[in-house]
Amino acid sequence: MNGKILETENVTVSFDGFKALRNLNFNMDAGELRVVIGPNGAGKTTFLDVITGKVQPTEGRVLFKGRNTKRLSEHQIARLGIGRKFQTPRIYLNLTPWENLEITCNRNKNVLATLFGNSPSEERRTVAGLLETIGLSAKADIKAGLLSHGEKQRLEIGMLVAQSPDLLLVDEPVAGLTDEETYNIGELLLALAQSHSILVIEHDMEFVRQIARKVTVLHEGSVLCEGTIEEVQNDPRVIEVYLGSHE
Ligand SMILES: Nc1ncnc2c1ncn2[C@@H]1O[C@H](COP(=O)(O)OP(=O)(O)OP(=O)(O)O)[C@@H](O)[C@H]1O
């Protein structure tokens, strides 16, 4: 591995001739927190789908940790270390946050146990630590269905982290959240970025300003430009295709 956790080389995805991604060249370093923005239909969701193997590139290739993921199933790619957070939380509403996290830790038990010799008390410490990270220690034992939308998002991010992925893909985590909840998610992602590689797709520019170091702008299935949030916001091409219509 050349220090790149993710690379796409000339990736094109055609749906019946329509190119949702066009010769997309993208890469990010291990340990990076990257934000991808772009107007509606730019190809952001397709980009995540092609990384996770849900969609196959029509042309080009995707490398995860230097390995070509072609011919691998979605499940196999997930097991290589890619975790995806969808827009709507996928948590067990009848279970408590504690139980939700415990189940996720258990699912990974074989891997973790081999590595760390996970004992029940260590597992409790892991769950307690995760609850603290996502700011839900005080709500550990109420049904997850009673959590606010923002708290559910945080719980799902915690469940993702419990799977110990090398790369976290996070799709529009603050859609529909209040300003305070949005800020909390931002702080959580910044904290997680200290020990994870994270790729965030986002529309909310206030949120992007809070978390972004390097931003990639997608437009019509290709990278339009990359840079700091200031560079991107001042780029006339970006103003024309994206920011002009949103701010
Ligand atoms: N399965 C499919 N079949 C045909 N066209 C598709 C399919 N999936 C996506 N597209 C088209 O590809 C383009 C890119 O879609 P995509 O969902 O990746 O964009 P996006 O940037 O995520 O948009 P949004 O911000 O609106 O979610 C769109 O024009 C969409 O209609």
UniProtKB/TrEMBL annotation:
Keyword Transport applies: yes
Record domain ABC transporter: where: 6-245
One Pfam family hit: ABC_tran
GO MF terms held by the record: ATP binding; ATP hydrolysis activity
InterPro entries: AAA+_ATPase, ABC_AA/LPS_Transport, ABC_transporter-like_ATP-bd, ABC_transporter-like_CS, ABC_transptr_urea_ATP-bd_UrtD, BCA_ABC_TP_C, P-loop_NTPase
UniProt KW keywords: ATP-binding, Nucleotide-binding, Transport
GO cellular component: plasma membrane
Keyword Electron transport attached: no
Source superkingdom: Bacteria
Gene3D superfamilies in the record: P-loop containing nucleotide triphosphate hydrolases
Family annotation (PANTHER family): CONSERVED COMPONENT OF ABC TRANSPORTER FOR NATURAL AMINO ACIDS-RELATED (PTHR45772), HIGH-AFFINITY BRANCHED-CHAIN AMINO ACID TRANSPORT ATP-BINDING PROTEIN (PTHR45772:SF8)
Protein name: Urea ABC transporter ATP-binding protein UrtD
Gene: urtD
